[in-house]
Amino acid sequence: MHRLMGLSIASYRVVIRPPEPIGYRYRTDSPVPTYQPSATVLRSRGTKRECESAVNSKRPVNLDLGKFHFPLPAITSILHRISGIIIFVGVAFLMYGLDLSLSGEDGFNRVNELLDSFLAKLIIWGILSALLYHLVAGIKHLLMDAGIGEELESGRLAAKATIAVSVVLIVLAGVWVWA
Amino acid sequence: MGMNSVTNIGRNGIQDWIIQRVTAYVLALYTLFLLGFFVTTDVDYQAWSALFAQGWFKIFSLLALLSIAGHAWVGLWTVSTDYIKSAMPRFLLQAACVLVMFVYVVWGIQILWGL
Predict the structure, then answer these.
(1) Do A102 and B111 touch (CB under 8 A)?
(2) What is the CATH number of domain B3-112?
(3) What pLDDT was estimated at residue B8?
(4) In this structure, are residues A82 and A131 in contact, taking their beta carbons and an 8 Å threshold?
(5) What is the mean pLDDT of residues B36-65?
(6) What residues of chain B have any CB closer than 8 angstroms to a CB in chain A?
(7) How far from chain centre, in Å, is Cα A70?
(8) Is the pTM of this model over 0.80?
(9) Per-residue pLDDT tens over the stretch A39-91
(10) Domain A72-178 class in CATH
(11) What is residue A157's three-state secondary structure?
């Protein structure tokens, strides 16, 4: 018997199968050969997966987000939100520094002294990192407004580019703060 | 409706969306300008205070400050509405965020115009 990409040739009988759904096996031992859940999947999931029962249920169900696998574009979106909250809090630190630095030459030098401490450097790098990430992810959003990066593949690519560009910028900001 | 339409800045989602975009462009420009200033200038007190002494930069800074307030209002409203289900804690958090933004704006005006 030869098998090639789902095509079985056995005793002049040719069976062309559609691709197997995940967790399903082609069962020839049942009266009508068909796709049925594989034994391992049945064992591991008990009765039904949570999302399946949620979809089929008549009652509204809050999905347990902790159990879901998040694709990269979802992760970049959540990071965009988290970085926004960090910036909102960080503005207080930046405005304190701006106030002090513009109060006079003594105040400006005081800000420089403060920025010598490890903790202040860490806070500034944290705020800069959030700001740079939020800026890059925000530019991606504005490009999506223009219809760029809205498809599945280009969206994944844009998410990868967002991570890559912001990691480079965050490292550069770290060098600038700590050097 | 109810609590939600009381605490968002625009009267509807389209207004929120436009506010988020317009302020995003202002803030991106302001951030890139300041980054460029730090990269190209050896920043000492003279250069720093001279920048903030210029009228156009005071106005640009005030515009950025108001944009932060509007942008954060829409953003934090969206995020808190997504994650906080019960109305009263959500209302209190959103009101607290708006209060903080108001303080930022007043504080910023005091800094920029040396009040």
Answers:
(1) yes
(2) 1.20.1300.10
(3) 81
(4) no
(5) 95
(6) 21, 24-25, 28, 31, 44-45, 48-49, 52, 68, 72, 75-76, 79, 97, 100, 104, 107-108, 110-111, 114
(7) 6
(8) no
(9) 544 445 445 566 666 666 666 666 777 777 888 999 999 999 999 999 999 99
(10) mainly alpha
(11) helix
